[in-house]
Write a structure and sequence with these properties.
EC 1.5.1.5, disordered C terminus, hydrolase, Rossmann fold, 6-stranded parallel beta sheet, alpha/beta, binds NADPH dihydro-nicotinamide-adenine-dinucleotide phosphate, 3-stranded parallel beta sheet, NAD(P)-bd_dom_sf, binds 5,10-Methenyltetrahydrofolate
Length: 323
Amino acid sequence: MSAQIIDGRACARTLKQSLEADVARLRAEGLGIGLATVVVGDEYSSTAYERRLRRLADELGVPYSPRELPADVGQDELLACIGELNAEPSVSGILILRPLPSHVDESVVFRAIDPCKDVEAVHPDNAGLLALGVPRFVPSTAASCFHLLDTWLDSVGEDRAEFYHRCLIVVVGRSNNVGKPAISLGYERQATVSSVDEWADRTTGIGRHTRWADVLIVAAGKAGLIKAEHVGENAVVIDVGINGATGRDGKVRMIGDVDYDSVASRARALTPVPGGVGPVTDVWLLRNTVTAARLLAGQRIEQALPALPVARTAQVRTLQEKS
Ligand SMILES: NC(=O)C1=CN([C@@H]2O[C@H](COP(=O)(O)OP(=O)(O)OC[C@H]3O[C@@H](n4cnc5c(N)ncnc54)[C@H](OP(=O)(O)O)[C@@H]3O)[C@@H](O)[C@H]2O)C=CC1
Ligand SMILES: Nc1nc(=O)c2c([nH]1)NC[C@@H]1CN(c3ccc(C(=O)N[C@@H](CCC(=O)O)C(=O)O)cc3)C=[N+]21
């Protein structure tokens, strides 16, 4: 079997059209919007993302303030930078690119962000709201994974609710900004969710968990970690990983955490890298920046959140009814 390819670029194009309309509506209401990013050092995946955000903000005419700090920046200097962005009225969304250098305490840094400008929901207030199922911001990477899944389910005519209720979602990687939010969004869809980290790989191996997945979301940051032997034949595989791999010609190209060719020969559907989760993530972050602009203008969360794609009304049958 050869997997269906889930096209993130096509999905992002559609989402971008509604984002353009959201930004225009905001302007028509006389509300300001601006995005600030903070990159510490020059890690491959951070700079790749920052470039994309810069370009998207430019295309949308959204004011963009990039801050670049050296890898040896002191934590206090980083906190001072966040303080300035918190106080800057023209900035509605703040994104601190990860990974941060090891001498910086990420939790202290994230706690310093104004929760209403925290477009990635890394401040404990926002992470807590997400975990409770009442998010202020839905973190962009996890949101993108599920947006791709929802869109793909619609395209193959599967009922979303029925699919998720019967579904085992296995999430590889449990970082605070990708894996854990993906786990929360899986719960929200009433799926069965399990989580795999590096210890599982080092001890029993991850295959004994991942092979059972109906949906496998991989966010480990390890190039080619997932191979055909790790996936079931009916699996839908969402590859979040962004890794720089140097080829024989010395050029660096982008690859995911999934060994694309071997998994494509086995799985039911697969997101490629590039062209999968990545292109949706930056659009979603700008959507969250629109939400932030509305919150900062005093609107309530329900008024501020952009409309999500509506799930088709489903008559969900229970197991007994099915048999
Ligand atoms: N496409 C996109 O839009 C985005 C892509 N990314 C990419 O996704 C990847 C993950 O990002 P992020 O979550 O921030 O990374 P982190 O490094 O913060 O977290 C990685 C997680 O993966 C786990 N892990 C590492 N190695 C293994 C292994 N061999 N088996 C199982 N689990 C493992 C770690 O386990 P433990 O907890 O035990 O350390 C940890 O929980 C990166 O490549 C990043 O660039 C990130 C954001 C957006
Ligand atoms: N706080 C934080 N949040 C993040 O979301 C975050 C981060 N830190 N640190 C770095 C990683 C990496 N990341 C990318 C997202 C999209 C592309 C992307 O869209 N890539 C295009 C590449 C196109 C190309 O260059 O060929 C694609 O996948 O098709 C890349 C990288 C977000 N990250």
